[in-house]
Write a structure and sequence with these properties.
The protein is an all-alpha fold and about 300 residues long. The protein has a single domain (about 75-305), classed as MetI-like fold (Orthogonal Bundle), CATH 1.10.3720. The chain is about 75% helix and about 0% strand. It has helices at about 5-10, 20-50, 65-75, 75-105, 115-120, 130-140, 145-150, 165-195, 195-205, 210-220, 225-240, 240-245, 260-270, 275-305, and strands at about 55, 60-65. The N and C termini lie far apart (about 60 Å). The mean pLDDT is about 85. Belongs to the binding-protein-dependent transport system permease family. Its main location: membrane. It is found in: Cell membrane.
Length: about 300
Protein backbone atom coordinates (compact mmCIF):
# COMPACT_ATOMS: atom_id res chain seq x y z
CA UNK A 1 0.00 0.00 0.00
CA UNK A 2 1.15 3.52 -0.72
CA UNK A 3 1.32 6.14 1.94
CA UNK A 4 -1.38 8.77 2.00
CA UNK A 5 -0.77 11.75 -0.20
CA UNK A 6 -0.45 14.10 2.77
CA UNK A 7 2.13 11.82 4.36
CA UNK A 8 4.13 11.67 1.11
CA UNK A 9 4.14 15.43 0.87
CA UNK A 10 5.37 15.64 4.46
CA UNK A 11 8.28 13.23 3.82
CA UNK A 12 9.33 14.77 0.48
CA UNK A 13 12.39 17.08 0.59
CA UNK A 14 11.44 20.70 0.85
CA UNK A 15 12.69 22.94 -1.97
CA UNK A 16 13.97 26.35 -1.10
CA UNK A 17 12.17 29.23 -2.75
CA UNK A 18 14.10 30.76 -5.63
CA UNK A 19 14.46 34.07 -3.80
CA UNK A 20 15.95 32.35 -0.77
CA UNK A 21 18.45 30.48 -2.97
CA UNK A 22 19.39 33.78 -4.67
CA UNK A 23 19.97 35.47 -1.32
CA UNK A 24 22.13 32.56 -0.16
CA UNK A 25 24.24 32.85 -3.31
CA UNK A 26 24.69 36.57 -2.75
CA UNK A 27 25.85 35.83 0.80
CA UNK A 28 28.62 33.57 -0.49
CA UNK A 29 29.74 35.89 -3.30
CA UNK A 30 29.52 39.22 -1.46
CA UNK A 31 32.70 38.88 0.70
CA UNK A 32 34.84 38.17 -2.37
CA UNK A 33 33.30 41.01 -4.36
CA UNK A 34 33.75 43.38 -1.41
CA UNK A 35 37.39 42.38 -1.02
CA UNK A 36 38.14 42.94 -4.72
CA UNK A 37 36.33 46.29 -4.62
CA UNK A 38 38.32 47.46 -1.59
CA UNK A 39 41.79 46.39 -2.74
CA UNK A 40 41.44 46.89 -6.50
CA UNK A 41 38.54 48.93 -7.82
CA UNK A 42 38.43 51.69 -5.20
CA UNK A 43 42.19 52.45 -5.48
CA UNK A 44 41.85 52.46 -9.27
CA UNK A 45 38.98 54.95 -9.11
CA UNK A 46 40.93 57.13 -6.67
CA UNK A 47 44.01 57.01 -8.92
CA UNK A 48 41.87 57.97 -11.90
CA UNK A 49 40.51 60.97 -10.01
CA UNK A 50 43.99 62.03 -8.81
CA UNK A 51 45.28 61.91 -12.42
CA UNK A 52 43.01 64.87 -13.22
CA UNK A 53 44.28 66.93 -10.30
CA UNK A 54 47.38 68.74 -9.07
CA UNK A 55 48.30 67.09 -5.79
CA UNK A 56 51.53 66.87 -3.81
CA UNK A 57 50.28 64.52 -1.10
CA UNK A 58 49.28 67.31 1.27
CA UNK A 59 46.06 69.26 1.43
CA UNK A 60 43.26 68.78 -1.04
CA UNK A 61 43.73 67.82 -4.70
CA UNK A 62 43.06 70.67 -7.15
CA UNK A 63 41.18 69.64 -10.29
CA UNK A 64 43.08 70.68 -13.45
CA UNK A 65 41.47 68.51 -16.13
CA UNK A 66 43.77 66.81 -18.62
CA UNK A 67 46.83 68.99 -17.95
CA UNK A 68 48.75 66.06 -16.45
CA UNK A 69 48.21 64.01 -19.59
CA UNK A 70 49.31 66.92 -21.79
CA UNK A 71 52.47 67.35 -19.74
CA UNK A 72 53.06 63.60 -19.78
CA UNK A 73 52.94 63.22 -23.57
CA UNK A 74 54.95 66.43 -24.08
CA UNK A 75 57.81 65.14 -21.90
CA UNK A 76 60.62 63.52 -23.97
CA UNK A 77 61.60 61.44 -20.93
CA UNK A 78 58.12 59.91 -20.86
CA UNK A 79 58.27 59.04 -24.55
CA UNK A 80 61.67 57.43 -23.92
CA UNK A 81 60.06 55.42 -21.10
CA UNK A 82 57.42 54.18 -23.53
CA UNK A 83 60.18 53.12 -25.96
CA UNK A 84 62.12 51.34 -23.21
CA UNK A 85 58.95 49.57 -22.09
CA UNK A 86 58.44 48.37 -25.67
CA UNK A 87 62.02 47.04 -25.65
CA UNK A 88 61.20 45.15 -22.46
CA UNK A 89 58.04 43.64 -23.93
CA UNK A 90 59.77 42.44 -27.09
CA UNK A 91 62.90 41.28 -25.28
CA UNK A 92 60.99 39.42 -22.56
CA UNK A 93 58.94 37.53 -25.16
CA UNK A 94 61.94 36.67 -27.34
CA UNK A 95 64.58 35.80 -24.73
CA UNK A 96 63.15 34.25 -21.52
CA UNK A 97 60.31 32.51 -23.36
CA UNK A 98 62.48 31.40 -26.28
CA UNK A 99 65.37 30.27 -24.09
CA UNK A 100 63.00 28.49 -21.70
CA UNK A 101 61.43 26.62 -24.60
CA UNK A 102 64.87 25.66 -25.95
CA UNK A 103 66.00 24.32 -22.55
CA UNK A 104 62.78 22.34 -22.14
CA UNK A 105 63.00 20.78 -25.62
CA UNK A 106 66.69 19.89 -25.36
CA UNK A 107 66.29 18.31 -21.91
CA UNK A 108 63.00 16.55 -22.63
CA UNK A 109 63.33 12.79 -22.58
CA UNK A 110 66.78 12.82 -20.99
CA UNK A 111 67.35 10.77 -17.82
CA UNK A 112 67.00 13.02 -14.78
CA UNK A 113 65.95 15.94 -16.97
CA UNK A 114 65.01 17.93 -13.85
CA UNK A 115 68.68 18.07 -12.85
CA UNK A 116 69.51 19.75 -16.16
CA UNK A 117 66.81 22.39 -15.63
CA UNK A 118 67.58 23.03 -11.94
CA UNK A 119 70.57 25.40 -12.52
CA UNK A 120 68.34 27.58 -14.72
CA UNK A 121 65.54 27.54 -12.14
CA UNK A 122 67.61 28.62 -9.11
CA UNK A 123 67.83 32.33 -10.15
CA UNK A 124 64.02 32.50 -10.13
CA UNK A 125 64.16 32.07 -6.34
CA UNK A 126 66.05 35.37 -6.05
CA UNK A 127 64.27 38.68 -5.73
CA UNK A 128 64.48 41.15 -8.58
CA UNK A 129 66.53 43.54 -6.45
CA UNK A 130 69.03 40.77 -5.66
CA UNK A 131 69.32 39.99 -9.36
CA UNK A 132 69.92 43.69 -10.02
CA UNK A 133 72.68 43.90 -7.41
CA UNK A 134 74.43 40.78 -8.75
CA UNK A 135 74.38 41.96 -12.34
CA UNK A 136 75.38 45.50 -11.37
CA UNK A 137 78.56 44.02 -9.93
CA UNK A 138 79.13 42.09 -13.17
CA UNK A 139 78.31 44.90 -15.60
CA UNK A 140 79.57 48.04 -13.88
CA UNK A 141 82.44 49.98 -15.44
CA UNK A 142 85.64 47.95 -14.88
CA UNK A 143 83.42 45.30 -13.34
CA UNK A 144 83.67 41.53 -13.53
CA UNK A 145 82.65 41.27 -17.19
CA UNK A 146 85.03 43.98 -18.40
CA UNK A 147 87.92 42.46 -16.46
CA UNK A 148 87.13 39.00 -17.83
CA UNK A 149 87.11 40.35 -21.41
CA UNK A 150 90.47 42.05 -20.85
CA UNK A 151 91.94 38.85 -19.38
CA UNK A 152 90.69 36.80 -22.35
CA UNK A 153 91.82 39.47 -24.86
CA UNK A 154 88.27 39.77 -26.22
CA UNK A 155 86.63 42.97 -27.52
CA UNK A 156 83.98 44.80 -25.51
CA UNK A 157 85.87 45.67 -22.35
CA UNK A 158 85.56 49.39 -23.18
CA UNK A 159 81.75 49.28 -23.31
CA UNK A 160 79.86 51.12 -20.58
CA UNK A 161 77.21 48.50 -20.07
CA UNK A 162 75.05 50.40 -17.57
CA UNK A 163 75.77 53.96 -18.68
CA UNK A 164 75.01 54.10 -22.41
CA UNK A 165 71.46 53.85 -23.76
CA UNK A 166 69.89 51.71 -25.08
CA UNK A 167 72.70 49.26 -24.22
CA UNK A 168 71.82 49.47 -20.51
CA UNK A 169 68.22 48.49 -21.26
CA UNK A 170 69.35 45.52 -23.34
CA UNK A 171 71.71 44.17 -20.67
CA UNK A 172 68.99 44.53 -18.03
CA UNK A 173 66.69 42.48 -20.25
CA UNK A 174 69.51 39.93 -20.31
CA UNK A 175 69.58 39.91 -16.50
CA UNK A 176 65.82 39.39 -16.46
CA UNK A 177 66.30 36.51 -18.91
CA UNK A 178 68.80 34.90 -16.54
CA UNK A 179 66.18 35.05 -13.81
CA UNK A 180 63.08 34.03 -15.78
CA UNK A 181 64.21 31.46 -18.34
CA UNK A 182 64.26 28.63 -15.80
CA UNK A 183 60.64 28.90 -14.75
CA UNK A 184 59.57 29.05 -18.40
CA UNK A 185 61.64 25.92 -19.03
CA UNK A 186 59.82 24.25 -16.14
CA UNK A 187 56.41 25.20 -17.55
CA UNK A 188 57.30 24.07 -21.06
CA UNK A 189 58.74 20.86 -19.64
CA UNK A 190 55.42 20.11 -17.95
CA UNK A 191 53.66 20.87 -21.24
CA UNK A 192 55.94 18.48 -23.15
CA UNK A 193 55.24 15.72 -20.65
CA UNK A 194 51.48 16.16 -21.13
CA UNK A 195 51.65 15.73 -24.93
CA UNK A 196 50.32 12.28 -25.95
CA UNK A 197 52.95 10.03 -27.50
CA UNK A 198 50.74 8.42 -30.15
CA UNK A 199 50.61 11.42 -32.58
CA UNK A 200 54.39 11.87 -32.27
CA UNK A 201 55.04 8.20 -32.96
CA UNK A 202 52.74 8.33 -35.99
CA UNK A 203 54.61 11.38 -37.30
CA UNK A 204 57.95 9.60 -36.86
CA UNK A 205 56.61 6.62 -38.81
CA UNK A 206 55.68 9.05 -41.61
CA UNK A 207 59.29 10.28 -41.68
CA UNK A 208 59.10 13.44 -39.53
CA UNK A 209 62.03 14.06 -37.22
CA UNK A 210 64.04 16.82 -35.60
CA UNK A 211 62.87 20.36 -36.27
CA UNK A 212 60.17 19.19 -38.69
CA UNK A 213 58.62 17.04 -35.97
CA UNK A 214 58.78 19.94 -33.52
CA UNK A 215 57.30 22.46 -35.96
CA UNK A 216 54.46 20.31 -37.24
CA UNK A 217 53.48 18.33 -34.12
CA UNK A 218 55.06 19.41 -30.84
CA UNK A 219 54.76 23.19 -31.22
CA UNK A 220 51.03 23.20 -32.18
CA UNK A 221 50.23 20.96 -29.19
CA UNK A 222 52.11 23.37 -26.92
CA UNK A 223 50.04 26.33 -28.16
CA UNK A 224 47.67 26.58 -25.12
CA UNK A 225 50.58 26.61 -22.68
CA UNK A 226 52.53 29.03 -24.86
CA UNK A 227 49.57 31.41 -24.78
CA UNK A 228 49.69 31.47 -20.97
CA UNK A 229 53.49 31.84 -20.76
CA UNK A 230 53.65 34.65 -23.33
CA UNK A 231 50.65 36.41 -21.76
CA UNK A 232 52.30 36.38 -18.32
CA UNK A 233 55.56 37.61 -19.87
CA UNK A 234 53.81 40.55 -21.54
CA UNK A 235 52.12 41.66 -18.33
CA UNK A 236 55.31 41.15 -16.30
CA UNK A 237 57.45 43.14 -18.72
CA UNK A 238 55.04 46.08 -18.74
CA UNK A 239 55.34 46.49 -14.97
CA UNK A 240 59.06 45.64 -14.57
CA UNK A 241 60.53 47.70 -11.77
CA UNK A 242 62.78 45.85 -9.32
CA UNK A 243 65.62 44.77 -11.63
CA UNK A 244 65.85 48.23 -13.22
CA UNK A 245 65.81 49.95 -9.85
CA UNK A 246 68.51 47.62 -8.55
CA UNK A 247 70.79 48.16 -11.56
CA UNK A 248 70.41 51.74 -12.83
CA UNK A 249 67.47 53.37 -11.00
CA UNK A 250 66.39 54.49 -14.45
CA UNK A 251 69.63 56.34 -15.11
CA UNK A 252 71.95 57.80 -15.99
CA UNK A 253 69.50 60.65 -15.82
CA UNK A 254 66.30 59.03 -17.09
CA UNK A 255 67.56 57.18 -20.16
CA UNK A 256 66.72 53.65 -18.90
CA UNK A 257 63.39 54.41 -17.26
CA UNK A 258 60.31 52.36 -18.03
CA UNK A 259 56.72 53.40 -17.38
CA UNK A 260 56.77 51.72 -13.97
CA UNK A 261 59.85 53.72 -12.89
CA UNK A 262 58.46 56.95 -14.30
CA UNK A 263 55.28 56.41 -12.30
CA UNK A 264 57.28 55.76 -9.11
CA UNK A 265 59.63 58.71 -9.52
CA UNK A 266 56.93 61.23 -10.36
CA UNK A 267 54.82 60.11 -7.42
CA UNK A 268 57.23 59.39 -4.57
CA UNK A 269 60.37 61.34 -5.51
CA UNK A 270 59.00 64.43 -7.26
CA UNK A 271 55.79 64.42 -5.15
CA UNK A 272 53.78 65.03 -8.33
CA UNK A 273 50.99 62.66 -7.38
CA UNK A 274 48.70 63.85 -10.16
CA UNK A 275 51.30 63.27 -12.88
CA UNK A 276 52.31 59.96 -11.33
CA UNK A 277 48.66 58.87 -11.28
CA UNK A 278 48.33 59.84 -14.96
CA UNK A 279 51.30 57.61 -15.81
CA UNK A 280 49.81 54.81 -13.68
CA UNK A 281 46.48 55.13 -15.48
CA UNK A 282 48.20 55.07 -18.87
CA UNK A 283 50.22 51.98 -17.87
CA UNK A 284 47.07 50.24 -16.63
CA UNK A 285 45.22 50.92 -19.87
CA UNK A 286 48.17 49.71 -21.96
CA UNK A 287 48.50 46.52 -19.89
CA UNK A 288 44.79 45.69 -20.08
CA UNK A 289 44.57 46.43 -23.80
CA UNK A 290 47.71 44.41 -24.58
CA UNK A 291 46.37 41.46 -22.60
CA UNK A 292 42.93 41.60 -24.20
CA UNK A 293 44.24 41.97 -27.76
CA UNK A 294 46.76 39.16 -27.32
CA UNK A 295 44.27 36.76 -25.74
CA UNK A 296 41.55 37.55 -28.30
CA UNK A 297 43.97 36.86 -31.15
CA UNK A 298 45.13 33.60 -29.58
CA UNK A 299 41.58 32.44 -28.93
CA UNK A 300 40.58 33.33 -32.49
CA UNK A 301 43.55 31.33 -33.84
CA UNK A 302 42.62 28.34 -31.66
CA UNK A 303 39.02 28.35 -32.96
CA UNK A 304 40.22 28.45 -36.56
CA UNK A 305 42.27 25.27 -36.13
Amino acid sequence: MSLPTARQAELAPQRKPKNQFWLSSIGFVAPGVLLVAVVLYLPFLWTTYISFTEYNGLGDPEFIGIENFRDMFADPAFLNSVLNTLYWVLGTIALPVGLGLLIAVLSHGLPNATLFRLPFLIPYALSGVAVGVIWSFVLQTNGALSQALVFLHLPGSELRWLLDAPLNTFVMIGASTWQGAGVNALLFGIGLQSIPKEPLEAARVDGASGFTLFRTMTWPMLAPLTTVVVGLSIVGSLKTFDIIWGMTKGGPGRVSETLALTMYKETFINNAYGLGAAVALFLTVVTVLASILYLRRQLADSRSI
